[in-house]
Design goal:
Number of helices of chain A: 13
Radius of gyration of chain A: 24 Å
Number of strands of chain A: 0
Order of helices and strands of chain A: HHHHHHHHHHHHH
Number of domains of chain A: 2
Strand content of chain A: under 5%
Helix content of chain A: over 70%
Strand content of chain B: under 5%
Largest interface: A-B, 27 and 29 residues
Shape of chain B: elongated
Structural class of chain A: mainly alpha
Number of helices of chain B: 10
Largest sheet of chain B: none
Oligomer: heterodimer
Order of helices and strands of chain B: HHHHHHHHHH
Number of strands of chain B: 0
Distance between the termini of chain A: 50 Å
Largest sheet of chain A: none
Shape of chain A: elongated
Distance between the termini of chain B: 58 Å
Chain lengths: 229, 215
């Protein structure tokens, strides 16, 4: 439907120009695009180095891995803390994209399996960055790393609230809060790392530990489940 | 009592104890004061102290510190050993034969107090552990001691299930009763000692199976 009800206007040179303009793709700033791409490659190099060796890499190592100069890094990031913050934002966005809530409407067993596997995969991917975050959070005067750590925890708790809503909704507020705190402690990223690194559990074995424990911690809702059935 | 050879000895004096090496005693005392200075600084600041800070707090020179510890990692290991010994001495098992709820509360009270006392040191040591195999070994030992204690306190319940289930429950309890789990309750969620204890008591009670009725 035309924006204006006049046929004359539609055929006017102004309208044709306007149509042409709306069809034309927005002008792409190639320089900005390249700079954004470089930024992303630097972040990916940083994350890749962390996966290889869970220690904070140096600027030289990051530059070498990304294929740029050290100067290029500091042209895009004020300092290594800014790079850590950007890498965290990138990873948090990636984690959310890779781990959408699945099976939230399923039965208890389905929801348990789905939440545990999603969380375990996130822990598996994110442990190295998480440790660097915690290591540097206290030194970060901007408070941005602590803010990311808090946001990450909130996301984890929010996901559990969603996945275990049927069980949690049967509890009074204070008991629900207590249970969420316990679930968060149980499924902490370091809890996962200990099972895998120290106790030598496989991915599936470690998932089983969490599933078993969460199942014991969550209240049963026989009336609701049987009514649904 | 003097330990010099010229000291008068009464004929009816009881047998003289083994000669005490005063120099060694003083050196041991200096060592202990340096360790205590380190722990006090960590509790106050939550940061790893420098050699200068440690020396000042202990009332010795930096040289004295390095005469007794070749480097700060050696000092950290000595601090950890001291803390483990103190933790073991103060963490006597209580209520081992009591009913389930009493044992859970006793365990939580002891563990909560331990976390309150040792959290700053735990954090400093954990942050530095990657650089020292000895420190990593101590951290593992502390974790093992915590787990062993839980296994003893909750033996009636844990012995009622299969090995596989017991292992799963113990791993879950270890995660739940971790130092950082306690720290989050206190620092992030702002719970009081009693409120945080209540979270643990309730969760442990849910995690533990019913004890076998016994013979």
């Amino acid at each position: 439907m035309p924006a204006f009800g006049s046929e004359g206007w539609q055929n006017s040179p102004e309208a044709q120009l306007s149509d042409a303009a709306s069809l034309k793709p927005p002008r792409i700033d190639g320089r900005r695009l390249r700079s954004e791409r470089t930024k992303q490659l630097i972040i990916e190099a940083f994350l890749s180095l962390l996966r290889d060796n869970p220690q904070m890499p140096t600027a030289v190592q990051i530059a070498e891995r990304a294929g740029y100069s050290v100067r290029s890094i500091f042209e895009r990031f004020a300092d290594l803390n800014a790079l850590r913050v950007a890498a965290t934002d990138y990873s948090l966005a990636q984690a959310l994209a890779l781990a959408p809530p699945r099976g939230a409407d399923g039965d208890r067993k389905t929801r348990l399996h789905s939440q545990v596997i999603t969380r375990a995969q996130t822990c598996e991917r994110g442990i190295a960055l998480w440790r660097v975050l915690l290591q540097f959070a206290d030194q970060d005067e901007t408070g941005q790393l602590k803010q990311r750590v808090a946001r990450s925890r909130e996301t984890t708790v929010g996901r559990m609230e969603l996945m275990y809503k049927p069980e949690l909704s049967t509890l009074p507020d204070d008991e629900r809060r207590q249970l969420l705190i316990a679930l968060e402690a149980l499924t902490d990223i370091e809890s996962w790392a200990r099972m895998r690194e120290q106790h030598g559990l496989s991915f599936d074995e470690a998932c089983e530990v969490w599933i078993h424990a969460i199942d014991r911690l969550l209240p049963t809702i026989p009336a609701v489940e049987s009514a649904a059935a | 009592m003097s330990d010099t050879p010229d000291a008068p000895v009464a004929a009816d004096e009881p047998p003289r104890p083994n000669r005490v090496d005063g120099r060694r005693l003083r050196s041991e005392r200096t060592r202990r004061l340096i360790i205590e200075a380190y722990m006090a600084l960590v509790r106050e600041t939550g940061q790893m102290p420098t050699a200068l800070q440690i020396a000042e707090r202990a009332g010795y020179s930096v040289r004295s510190v390095f005469e007794r510890f070749p480097d700060l990692t050696a000092l950290r290991i000595a601090v950890t050993d001291y803390a483990i010994a103190e933790g073991r001495a103060s963490g006597v098992l209580r209520d081992l034969d009591a009913d389930r709820l009493t044992r859970i509360k006793s365990q939580v009270e002891q563990r909560g107090s331990g976390c309150e006392r040792w959290l700053p040191l735990w954090r400093v040591l954990s942050a530095d552990a990657a650089h020292s195999a000895d420190l990593q070994q101590r951290i593992r030992m502390i974790r093992q001691l915590v787990v062993m204690r839980m296994e003893m306190m909750f033996r009636p319940e844990l012995s009622a299930v299969s090995d596989d289930t017991r292992k799963k429950i113990v791993l879950a309890l270890e995660a739940l009763l971790d130092f950082e789990s306690w720290a989050r309750m206190r620092e992030l969620y702002g719970l009081s000692f009693d409120e945080a204890s209540a979270v643990w008591v309730k969760s442990i009670d849910r995690l533990l199976p019913t004890a076998s009725s016994g013979p």
